[in-house]
UniProtKB/TrEMBL annotation:
This is ABC transporter substrate-binding protein. Residues 131-152 have a biased composition (Basic and acidic residues). GO terms for biological process: metal ion transport. It comes from the Bacteria. SUPFAM superfamilies: Helical backbone' metal receptor (SSF53807). It comes from Corynebacterium nuruki. GO terms for molecular function: metal ion binding.
Length: 329
């Protein structure tokens, strides 16, 4: 049986030994449930979260769920930078018509959560915060994350934090289960796929990487690939500003002197600093060793999250000389 709509909630997924708390504060809202009159509509901010939501729904349908769910995505390609995106009137209408809105949080896609209807369920991988000032709140990964990289700021690109992805998928499944108990209350398919990726990451050999953008930083946590990006450079890119000449020079020196053997860049947000580091990597011959990796903030058109994630891991395997490669999938 389908239950009445739950009031608005926001999922704050926590890492480490902290248990995800699902008893969250509610805001008022009496919007009618579309689940009582046909499809339950999910709208996602980007293709990452739309793809994960769609997998949760498709896996549940394969397991016999009778809940009718549609998933729509606002930013489905690589043409727009979600950081800077401003929702159009059509986007806002789509978002306000959703029963459930799903996204990133961490100030990354406030244009989604700010426009959700009062009665909509809000599920995000990280806390919904104000704006893009990433230095105003603590690191969601705890002390270990800060120690590994030497950066105190929060990285909003949480789709490469696989624990947060798991929490997000499970929270969505639990909510949909509360609407219709034929829907499984755990995202077991997502869990299995994340487990395969984690196994591949654990097999990566030792290497040092410089990141022109922090997009893939969380993916390196727990691996033998060290993020050696200078703290000043990383701080500037997390604050969405151009690093100083000294910070760029420090990062470039790590490439030219051979300390960094991998460069991870983001062609979707190419900056003058990133161009300088890419040129240094080319001069060093890293491109010929497949050790210059491009990781966009969003999957290509039609690409699923796990294809996007798998391709990134494959690039890391090739760049670091891993002998497992795609055979580890």
């Amino acid at each position: 049986m389908r239950s009445p709509r739950h009031p608005r909630r926001t999922a704050a997924a926590l890492t480490g030994a902290v248990v995800l708390t699902l008893g969250l504060t509610a805001c008022s809202g009496d919007r009618d449930s579309a689940a009582d009159n046909g499809d339950l509509r999910i709208v996602a901010s980007t293709a990452v979260w739309g793809s994960i939501a769609r997998q949760v729904v498709d896996d549940a349908k394969d397991d016999g769920s009778t809940l009718d769910v549609t998933v729509d995505t606002v930013l489905s390609g690589t043409d727009d930078d979600p950081h800077e995106y401003e929702a159009t009137a059509r986007d806002i209408a789509k978002i306000r018509d959703a029963d459930v809105v799903v996204g990133n949080g961490a100030g990354y896609d406030n244009w989604l959560t700010d426009n959700a209807a009062d009665g909509a369920e809000i599920i995000t991988a990280d806390q919904v915060t104000a704006g893009h000032d990433h230095g105003d709140h603590g690191d969601h990964g705890g002390d270990d994350h800060g120690d590994d990289h030497g950066h105190a700021e929060t990285n909003p690109h949480v789709w490469f934090n696989l624990m947060l992805v798991q929490h997000f998928a499970d929270h969505l499944a639990q909510y949909l289960h509360s609407v219709d108990d034929s829907f499984p209350d755990r995202a077991t398919g997502v869990s299995e796929d994340l487990g395969k990726v984690t196994d591949r990451l654990k097999k990566l050999p030792e290497a040092n990487a410089v990141l022109t953008e922090p997009v893939a930083a969380d993916l390196l946590d727990g691996t033998k690939v060290r993020d050696v990006t200078p703290a000043g450079y990383a701080h500037a890119t997390l604050a969405e500003s151009e690093p100083s000449a000294a910070d760029i020079s420090a990062a470039r020196d790590l490439i030219t002197d051979g300390t960094a053997t991998v460069l991870i860049t983001n062609a979707q947000a190419q900056s003058p600093a990133a161009s300088q580091l890419s040129q240094a990597a080319e001069d060093k011959g890293l491109d010929k060793k497949h050790a210059v990796i491009n990781v966009n903030e969003t999957p290509d058109n039609g690409q699923s999250y796990f294809d996007y994630l798998g391709n990134t891991v494959s690039a890391l395997e090739k760049a670091t000389g891993s002998t497992d490669g795609d055979a580890a999938k």
